Structures are given as structure tokens and as C-alpha cells.
């Protein structure tokens, strides 16, 4: 068994409307599903992705109004990456970020690729990474109706960075249980800090990498707005997911067991440093209950929540997502 790459990442926001504006109008991603947190239906769960919401392109947010800011630290997913087609694309984004007053750094090299660090409106940390010399997991298809020229548009998720105080327990889970392989290391660009270690799965490349950063100088993360809740890895189908459930159980990790999210099936567990991992199937997909041309335009609820629609809608603050789809 081997994961096909990163499936999705889920983060925290306190303002769904501003989140929608930033990720669709500034970053040019498509809202592929407007739904609710299935574990707390009083709050939105927004999914962004490529043209079709393909696995490996999905960036999601739980909205919790009045949530305190994230305190960065260890035992965390400390940075996410978004893939763009070329090195030239990064210069396009520098100019766009300058124009729109988005906080960003300078173009740099990171894990053998050109990259550009930036922060969203809630100070969530991202890197745009160039696919120019990337090999491995195929990128997605950019959103044709978005505001970004297709030759520079975001085409999927790149490497996920984990920051931990003691890396070896995390590394053992990645390599001995989850089947990742060590594939390199690179400078952290911080003085007196060890190199960041690179692990990959499946076909490898930007869409299948986890970076492990060791930090002994930071407190434990306090998750808040601008922080990342979990990372999910791609499992081919439900049959394989059950094989992973058996393997995780045999490894004696407490876990969620099988969870039906309707758009995909999942398993959740925490690795030894407390970071939440999800294993998620590639299907059925986000066009299961909406036509591909109208993804994200209205509130979508899985069948097991549909009987509660009136009650759920009454608790949600209206969020108009129909204009740009």
C-alpha cells in the first residue's frame, strides 16, 4: 500500500466571507464546495481547489467566528504550499501581491524548487512553489473562470511542512507505518537550525512531499485562525482504506475508524507529536451532488444532514458564493 500523494489540507478561519474573497479573487482558486463542518453543523466548511476539485488540489477551511489567532509552534502543520506552473509564475505573483498588498517574501530556493513565501489575511503561512522542474504527481487543472492567467494559476497542493520538537517519532510513523521514503533535505534559512528533512510517497514530487522541521526553541502551537487543522493523504478507494484502518489498528494508534464524509471516506489519527493525519479516498468526488458547472454556488449538505437543512441554514450567516462561479 502506498499513498498517491496529498489529498487535502484543512485550516482555520474566523471570517468566511473574507476567506472566500481572498482565496477566489486574490489567489484565483475555485470554491468547489460550500458546506458545513459535519462535526459541528453551526459553522461553514469551505473547499477550494482546481477546476474540478481533484484530489491533491483541495484547500479547506473551517470557520469559527471570533477564534483567537494561531500561535505558531511545534506539534503543528506550520506551512502549506500551492503549486504554480513555472519560475516565471512566481514573478507574476510577486507583482500581484505587491499590487494587492499581500504580505510576502522574496523568491528563494526551497527543496530544489523556486518558491515564494506569503501570508493570507489571517497570517496563515504559505509557499507558492514552481512546478517548472518538478517530476511526480501530476498537477491539477486551473480554474478557467478565475482572475489569474492560466499560465500562472494555482494548480494544486505542494509540500506540507510539519514542525516538531522531537522528529524521530514522527519520522518513524511516516516511514515505517505510512510508507514514506526519505528523499533529501534543505536549509531552513534560519540561523543555528538543522536542515529540514524531505519525505515523499507514491510517484513523489511536489504533490507528494512532507517536510519535517525540528525546532527546540518554540512553544507548542495554540491552534487558532490562520492555523492548519490537519493534512489528508490520498488512498485509492474504500477497499484500500479498510486495509489502512487495519494497519493503523495493528500499530495501536487511537483512531476514528471508518468515517463517511460523503465526498470521500476517511480515517483520522494523531502521530506521536500530536499532529492530526487523515487518510481519504479519491472519490466519490465533489460533483456527486452538484453539477460540475455549479460547484460551490449553494449550500451543499450530504444526505445524512439534508433532513436538518432548515435548522442548519437558520444558524449560518448568509454567504453569497454564486457571483464568481
Automatic annotation (TrEMBL):
Pfam families: Glyoxalase. SUPFAM superfamilies: Glyoxalase/Bleomycin resistance protein/Dihydroxybiphenyl dioxygenase. InterPro entries: Extradiol_RC_dioxygenase (IPR052537), Glyas_Bleomycin-R_OHBP_Dase (IPR029068), Glyas_Fos-R_dOase_dom (IPR004360), VOC_core (IPR037523). Keywords: Dioxygenase, Oxidoreductase. Residues 5-131, 156-282 form the VOC domain. GO terms for molecular function: dioxygenase activity. It comes from the Bacteria. PANTHER family: RING-CLEAVING DIOXYGENASE MHQA-RELATED, RING-CLEAVING DIOXYGENASE MHQE-RELATED. This is Ring-cleaving dioxygenase.
Amino acid at each position: 500500500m502506498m499513498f498517491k500523494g496529498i489529498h487535502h489540507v484543512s485550516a482555520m478561519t474566523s471570517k468566511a466571507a473574507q476567506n472566500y474573497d481572498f482565496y477566489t479573487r486574490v489567489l484565483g482558486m475555485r470554491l468547489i464546495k460550500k458546506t458545513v463542518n459535519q462535526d459541528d453543523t453551526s459553522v461553514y466548511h469551505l473547499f477550494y481547489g482546481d477546476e474540478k476539485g481533484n484530489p491533491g488540489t483541495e484547500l479547506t477551511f473551517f470557520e469559527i467566528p471570533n477564534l483567537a489567532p494561531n500561535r505558531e509552534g511545534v506539534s503543528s502543520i506550520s506551512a502549506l504550499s500551492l503549486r504554480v506552473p513555472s519560475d516565471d509564475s512566481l514573478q507574476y505573483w510577486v507583482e500581484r501581491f505587491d499590487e494587492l498588498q499581500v504580505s510576502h517574501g522574496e523568491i528563494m530556493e526551497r527543496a530544489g524548487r523556486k518558491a515564494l513565501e506569503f501570508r493570507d489575511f489571517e497570517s496563515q503561512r504559505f509557499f507558492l512553489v514552481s512546478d517548472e522542474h518538478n517530476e511526480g504527481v501530476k498537477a491539477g487543472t486551473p480554474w478557467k473562470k478565475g482572475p489569474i492567467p492560466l499560465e500562472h494559476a494555482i494548480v494544486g497542493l505542494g509540500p506540507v511542512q510539519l514542525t516538531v520538537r522531537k522528529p524521530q517519532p514522527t519520522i518513524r510513523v511516516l516511514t515505517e507505518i505510512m510508507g514514506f521514503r526519505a528523499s533529501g533535505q534543505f536549509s531552513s534559512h534560519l540561523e543555528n537550525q538543522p536542515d529540514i528533512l524531505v519525505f515523499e510517497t507514491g510517484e513523489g514530487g511536489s504533490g507528494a512531499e512532507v517536510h519535517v522541521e525540528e525546532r527546540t526553541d518554540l512553544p507548542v502551537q495554540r491552534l487558532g485562525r490562520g492555523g492548519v487543522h490537519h493534512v489528508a493523504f490520498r488512498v485509492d478507494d474504500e477497499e484500500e482504506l479498510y486495509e489502512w484502518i487495519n494497519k493503523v489498528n495493528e500499530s495501536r494508534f487511537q483512531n476514528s475508524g471508518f468515517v463517511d464524509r460523503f465526498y470521500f471516506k476517511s480515517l483520522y489519527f494523531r502521530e506521536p507529536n500530536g499532529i492530526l493525519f487523515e487518510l481519504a479516498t479519491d472519490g466519490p468526488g465533489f460533483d456527486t451532488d452538484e453539477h460540475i458547472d455549479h460547484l460551490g454556488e449553494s449550500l451543499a449538505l450530504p444526505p445524512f444532514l439534508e433532513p436538518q437543512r432548515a435548522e442548519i441554514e437558520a444558524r449560518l450567516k448568509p454567504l453569497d458564493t454564486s457571483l464568481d462561479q
